[in-house]
Prior knowledge:
2 copies of one chain form a homodimer.
Chain A: E1 18-23, H1 28-41, E2 45-49, H2 56-61, H3 66-70, E3 73-75, H4 78-82, E4 87-91, H5 104-111, E5 120-124, H6 133-137, E6 141-143, H7 156-169, H8 185-201, H9 210-224, H10 228-249
Parallel strand pairs in A: 1-2, 1-5, 2-3, 4-5, 4-6
Helix pairs in contact in A: 1-7, 8-9, 8-10
Amino acid sequence: MKLPFETEGVDKIGRSRFAVILIRPDSHENIGLVARAMKNTGFADLRLVGIDGLEPEAWRTAVHAEDILDNARFYPDLAAATKSLHLVFASTARVRKKFAILTFPEALETMLRFPLDTRIGLLFGKERTGLTGEELGSANFIYSIPQAVRQPSYNLASAVLLSLFGLFGRSAEGAFPREEPPLLRRDQDDCVRVILMKLEKTGFIHATNRTHITRKVQDIFGRIALTDKDRKLLMAIFNKSVERVYRPCLPGNQEKD
Amino acid sequence: MKLPFETEGVDKIGRSRFAVILIRPDSHENIGLVARAMKNTGFADLRLVGIDGLEPEAWRTAVHAEDILDNARFYPDLAAATKSLHLVFASTARVRKKFAILTFPEALETMLRFPLDTRIGLLFGKERTGLTGEELGSANFIYSIPQAVRQPSYNLASAVLLSLFGLFGRSAEGAFPREEPPLLRRDQDDCVRVILMKLEKTGFIHATNRTHITRKVQDIFGRIALTDKDRKLLMAIFNKSVERVYRPCLPGNQEKD
Lengths: 257, 257
């Protein structure tokens, strides 16, 4: 017998294109609870960064969700885990002065604004410390789940559950994509790297502001969710700016790329 | 520094009037996670039925939510835990043929439809078996949280978290009560007991259908969330029906109540 409102099978948002990425989780109990939350809400792609295998605690808490753990993939670093995705959304419980932060509903709407073949990673940091500035810098969007008190933040598995349930709740309604497809995350990163290189060449970035400006640039261009058209435009703009800076002092400069 | 959308302090639904009731939870790890989920979402009243105290596992998982555990109250049975509340909403993961089940959004809307001084209990059963038929029978409303697969059901603490987050998400918007205040749960139970007694007297309930009809009656009158006016009307109706059945065969019958 089926509940009249059971949503089994209904999936208008393409849940298989979402990956849950945990960076160096301390508690394997939490990994199992994440797997169970994924199973409950119909997501399957679990990616684990910076750990090599699973301890018995993970299997204990992943009641009836062992297949998620069986199929989990392990990556040495974040770039390897996200390179085949298009967009990365990072969850943070703390204020991050250097980054723009979406509200929770904004984040869910943004995820569903992109075409249905956009592969999206949901990124969650370590239990106690969350994501580092560098990790946040390699996400396209950062969001925060509302809470009533500053402390404690949501348990890791709870943050995953609320994020997935938020998406799952919209999966019966369907998504109405409005945006161009973004580049693969790897290609977006390459594009940002080229921009940073150009900014170094123009002297805009130098030894004393490098960290600060790099983060700002990553934040701004990360949020754009760069498309192929965006890349062409940006490359044109930055090539121009490098040319202009270089031309007066280095008339013979070959740098055109 | 505060996140611009932090909802700390905002509470238009009166979160203090909600109690989370766990019946005989097996895992104290889950009790701690429930406390943390309550803290995260701004709820404080935890009631534990059928257990006498807390094990260290509860304190381990209730990170920064120890005050919820400190203030938790222990009850020998469900009636004791709910008697001072007005309404009880029970969460179930299984189909219950004998009971009407609200969808999750319906349940949240229903909770907020009653006046802001309505004290509401959210009832959650044991991890593996959920609530018994009798326990469901003593709730006003039963609801189910949508899930993508039949198995596994949500972890106990996850079901609590999703319920509270659903309410919390509406707490910034505010509630717009439309209904009369219901009787205290104890008085509703008394009213249903009187109705059952009357139905026994008329011969409508007898040995072979007692369990079945009792549940149906509890389900129907539970869902009404009986007000004082309802009680007066029902008592009048059932007194009348008893009189009518009794009069022809027992003209001298003194039963008027």
